[in-house]
Design goal:
With 125 residues, the protein is mainly α. The protein has helices at 2-30, 35-50, 57-67, 77-86, 93-123. The protein is built from five helices and no strands.
Length: 125
Amino acid sequence: MFYSLMADAVVVFHLLFIVFVLSGALLVLRWRGWIWLHLPAVAWGMAVEFLHLYCPLTPLENALRLKAGSAGYEGDFLGHYLIPLIYPAGLTPQIQIALGAVVLVVNISAYLIVLLRWRRQRKGR
């Protein structure tokens, strides 16, 4: 039971991390200090997608599931949990590149807004 709960917690954390990578710049708009957590998270998220890396959370979840007596799964978090919801054919390198591009475009757009706001605030002083 403990290992199963821990595996579920890893999945929740993994999903929250993905949401943070995609939308954490909104926190930066409000609180500048978040930039120090968000930029490395974005860099990691883009590296995972563009370089086709596995996030270490995936093997951790699989190990916890195996200790709980459940079967682990092949592939990565996106391929197992999210992609089947969006792309029934499965995760391909092309889809990973597209997801990485989405992360890049969303964050460049958000950080342009952040920079414009910071410039306006500095000029207003």
